[in-house]
């Protein structure tokens, strides 16, 4: 891994961790209590299962990126090549980065779809609108979803760097042939 690429990857991973933690906190700590038809009702992220899944997914993605941050920051600051010629580690990092991006994007999109149902309701299924009663809750969830998509974009850039670090080990002239050391 080149020195500049490692620093860029470390910076992007740090930003991704911060945005993922912000997303989890905005969703996980959000609640609002309202007086609705003679009863106090509390809206939390547990009311929409997609938001619960989102909290778990972004927490795991933040942990993964934090572990990778430790590995690539050591490589960036000490100018070491931790991967060396270990092709298996490069492939594993590339595949895990891809999985992190796709799973986070999928969880964020599912939470967005559930949130749209909370905003608009669905009269065919007799689901009522929730955001006309819990406006602050819905605005905070909307901010969390925006942060989640920013994190997906950051992780996609990280995945591009990971792909670059993997495929630069291969020869340009022959398909899937490793470069020689000479």
From TrEMBL:
Topology of the protein relative to the lipid bilayer: Multi-pass membrane protein
Cellular component aspect of the GO annotation: plasma membrane
Annotated Pfam families: CASP_dom
Domain Casparian strip membrane protein residue range list: 5-154
Domain of life, source organism: Eukaryota
Transmembrane segments: 12-29, 49-67, 87-105, 143-167
InterPro entries, per database record: CASP/CASPL (IPR006459), CASP_dom (IPR006702)
Transit peptide is among the record's keywords: no
Keywords assigned by UniProt, alphabetized: Cell membrane, Membrane, Transmembrane, Transmembrane helix
Subcellular location: Cell membrane
Family of the protein in this entry: Belongs to the Casparian strip membrane proteins (CASP) family.
Subunit structure, as described in the record: Homodimer and heterodimers.
NCBIfam families linked to this entry: A_tha_TIGR01569 (TIGR01569)
Protein name from the UniProt record: CASP-like protein
